[in-house]
Amino acid sequence: MKHYGLMAGLFLLFGSSAHAALLERPELQRFIDDMVDRHSFERPELERVFSQTELRPDIIRAMTRPAERRPWHQYRPIFLTGDRINGGVAFWNEHADTLARAEQTYGVPAEIIVAIIGVESRYGRHKGSHRVIDALATLALDYPRRAQFFTSELENYLLMTRKEGYDPLDMMGSYAGAMGKAQFMPSSFQAYAVDFDGDGRRDLWNSAADAIGSVANYLRAHQWQRGGPIVSRAQLDGNGYREVLERGIRPHSTAEELTAHGIRVGQAVPDSVRGALIELETENGVEHWVGWQNFFVITRYNHSSLYAMAVHDLAQAIRAAREK
Fold first, then answer.
1. What is the number of other CB atoms lying within 10 angstroms of the CB of residue 83?
2. Please, are residues 138 and 56 in contact by the beta-carbon 8 Å criterion?
3. CA end-to-end distance (rounded Å), the chain
4. Statement: residue 249 has pLDDT above 90
5. Entry pTM
6. pLDDT tens-digit series, residues 34-73
């Protein structure tokens, strides 16, 4: 018993020292100054929050190995599983009326909304095991490459919790600070989360309706085209496609312009819709697709063509399984 008492005492001693050291960091003090000056936060309250915040080295390690660094043939099987497809069918059946209302309101197909929630949180089963305050503080202070972004997200998180009436020490999310069934970052919550169940609260943790409406609202706000194409398989003639590939994933060329570079798609696409060439690494070489405006919109959720393609393929698999 004495041994355990000693260990507990040492933990409290060093834990308290770590929290005190965090409060002494100049960059955190500047952040607190800014929150007090610009947003009228009370300094004692912010110091209370940060005195109980923990910097997590494991979060930095997780940031260095994202799944999007894998080739397509390794990335796709993470999300295209029987469990995730069947879970999507069950989620759609359970929330069919809400999904139909979201599709009607925002113009985003139900299967795309379902697939994003499936990719992000397995339909709300895995919303994250890290305290959001720990994740964002760690990345703002100890991840220099994206410190500016995560400092802004930390600011938005504190504004969000104050506005919504949440305790900033209680909210759980991903190692990057993404939250709820929809895995919104705090800035996205501020800008795009909606109260789709009408209970007077935007709750992405517990309300499937709010998650559904918020995902659809996010995509519409990023210029989703109702009824527009998402992605088309491409056939290549010659080497003119390389110039198009180098232009990136932001839509830039009509189907006619793509054809002029030796890129042919197997579906009719309106002249007003622009696309970009996507190259995916398979076990047997590479395959090419044209991602249209709606494909690009999905990448605004996660800036990766692999992510958007996984959402598209999962959405199609869920719809096909549900219609059997």
1. 9
2. yes
3. 62
4. yes
5. 0.90
6. 999 999 999 999 999 999 999 999 999 998 877 667 899 9
Q: What is the mean pLDDT of the chain?
A: 92
For residue 115, CA distances in Å to 79, 108, 149 come to: 9, 12, 27
Count Cα atoms within 13 angstroms, Cβ side, for 220.
Answer: 21
- For residue 295, give both structure tokens: 């494909």
C-alpha–C-alpha distance, residues 140 and 138, integer Å: 6
| Residue 18, pLDDT score | 55
Q: What are the residue numbers of the active site?
A: 120
Q: What is the DSSP string of 224-287?
A: --TT---EEEEEE-SSTHHHHHTT-SS--B-HHHHHHTTEEESS---TT--EEEEEEEETTEEE
How many C-beta atoms surround the C-beta of residue 292 within 10 A? 23
Reported as a pLDDT band with limits 50, 70 and 90, residue 267 is: confident
User: Nearest-CA neighbor of 177 among 281, 89, 60?
Assistant: 60
Residues in the chain: 324
Q: What is the DSSP string of 149-195?
A: HHHHHHHHHHHHHHHHT--TTT-EE-TT--BTTTTB-HHHHHHH---
